[in-house]
Structures are given as structure tokens and as C-alpha cells.
Amino acid sequence: MASPPIIAGNWKMNLLLESSTKLISDLKKGGISNSRARVVIIPPATLLSSIAYQIKDTGVFLGAQNCHEELAGAFTGEVSADMLASAGCNYVILGHSERRMLFGETNDRIKAKMSSAIKCGLTPIVCVGESLQQRESGEAMDAVRKQLEECLVDEVNKNNCIIAYEPIWAVGTGQTAEPDDIEEIHRHIRNALKAKNPNSDGIPILYGGSVKPENASKILVLPEVGGALVGGASLNPKDFLAIINAASGKSEKKI
Ligand code: PEP
First-to-last CA distance in the chain? Predict the structure, then answer.
């Protein structure tokens, strides 16, 4: 049986206790539990425990936006994979382009974080993607291959990893890659994963970068696209539900 599409909502550094409770309540009213898609909510660390409580028994999964590679110690301000697992997380985003660009995260560190996440029972959602300059100079494929080679652990497989292809120029900009380009680079990622580990068949490859209700269907229908990592639109219950419904092939329910 084909695995269900994955729709992950990255809230980034947004929402407080009250606003997040309202968002989850709206998503529940809109039928988030009835989706064929595997839905993952990825709030900031301060909200993890509260959201874990609110989504228990809904079939929705919880993820975090980052972790430290060590499990404990003198790392003021950091959160370990172990802590995320104990807060109820199943997933953790690693190597998001905002972390790479704004916090200097390197491929080596992302790989160490991936090891730590897997040891703690989390599934890393490893982000890769090229800059606009790399795309325009024809280096997109090489850039993404290098990220995969350097970020992923050797034993990467469908039970311990999800890839999110997020072209940097499409994240938070309102621009999306063309379906043909998405399909081409997802096939390239599939081949790079096979080169890394011949037993890597079936690793879901998500697309991320300004996914909205208006473009979700035409992206999610592509054969190599296993779902979407959604930023801005995941903060709006109507939009997020529409994207989930597009992944499940359903029409919207009124909220
Ligand atoms: C993201 O944050 O991973 C993302 C894809 O953001 P947006 O959907 O807003 O482009």
C-alpha cells in the first residue's frame, strides 16, 4: 500500500499560548483528524507540551523546528532531541534554510543532529535546497546533491528520514518552483539517496516553498512528491486544511 502523503506545518517563531490553542481548535473543527494525509504540527519549542496535550487522540503528529546534537550539558538556550521526544515529538526539522542562513548551521552539524534525533526515536525532516544564484547559474542539482551527501547519515532509510526539498528563493516569498522543475529535482534527490544508501527506497520527499491552497493540488499530484512542508499557510486554519484536503483528494469542510 502506498504511504500517505505528509503535510507538515512549520509555525516558525509565531504564536502564543492563546493564539495556538485557537488555531488547533479551528483545525479540529475543520476535520484535521479525518484526513488521509499524515499531518505534523511543528510549533516553537515553548508550545510543544501544550500542543502535545491538545492533539492527543487526534491522529495528528508533533514535530520540533531544531535540536542540539548533544543530549545534555552546558549548552544554554539549546534543546536536545531527547527533550523533544519526552515532550511528545515524533519529528524534528533539521537544516531549514533559515537556520543555515541566519544561524550558520553547517552540513556537519546537521548530520550530527540527525544521528542524535534518530537515537532518540525522532524522524528528522532534513531540508535541502538551492539559492536563487545557484539556480540561475545551473548549480541547483550539484548544490542539493552536496547537501544530501554531507548531511545524511550513511544508514539513511525510509524509517529514519524524510527529505524536504525547499528552494531557498521560494521559502516565504510567494514564489513556487514550476511542477516540471520540482519533479526533476525530486528525481535527482531520489537518485542521490540511492547513491548514499542502496536501501533507501521509499524515503518521503516533501516539497516546501510558498505552498498555498491555490498551488497545492498541482504540486502534491506530482509522482515524486510525498507531501509538503508548509510555513506561512500553516498559520491560517482555512488554508492549512485546504492543503491537507488537497493532499487527501477531498473538498473543504466549512469551519
Ligand atoms: C518553510 O518554512 O519551511 C516554508 C516552506 O515556508 P513558506 O511555506 O512560508 O514558504
Answer: 32
Region of 19 on the Ramachandran plot (φ > 0 left; ψ -120 to 50 alpha; else beta): alpha
pLDDT > 60? residue 1? no
Identified catalytic residue from 68, 96, 186, 188 = 96
| Dist. CA 246–CA 221, nearest whole Å | 9
Q: Tell me the three state secondary structure of residue 110.
A: helix
Q: H-type helices in 138-198, by residue range?
A: 140-151, 179-196
User: 143: number of CA atoms within 13 Å, CB side?
Assistant: 20
For ligand 1, say whether the CB of 10 is within 6 Å of any of its atoms: yes
Return d(Cα 91, Cα 229) in angstroms, integer.
12
Kindly compute the dihedral angle of the four CA atoms of residues 70, 110, 199, 225, in this order, to the nearest 10 degrees. 130
Residues 90/130, Cβ–Cβ less than 8 Å? no
Taking only the tens place, the pLDDT of each residue in 22-47 is 999 999 999 999 889 999 999 999 99
The pLDDT assigned to 109 comes to 98
Average pLDDT rounded to a whole number, residues 96-103: 97
- The Cα–Cα gap between 189 and 80 comes to 28
Residue 251: pLDDT over 70: no
> Quick one: cell of 121?
526515536
Q: Is 225:243 a contact under the CB 8 Å cutoff?
A: no
Q: What is the DSSP letter of 45?
A: G
Residue nearest to atom 2 of ligand 1 (CA): 231
Amino acid at 40: V
Please write the tens of the pLDDT for every residue from 79-90: 999 999 999 999
The one catalytic residue among 69, 105, 130, 166: 166
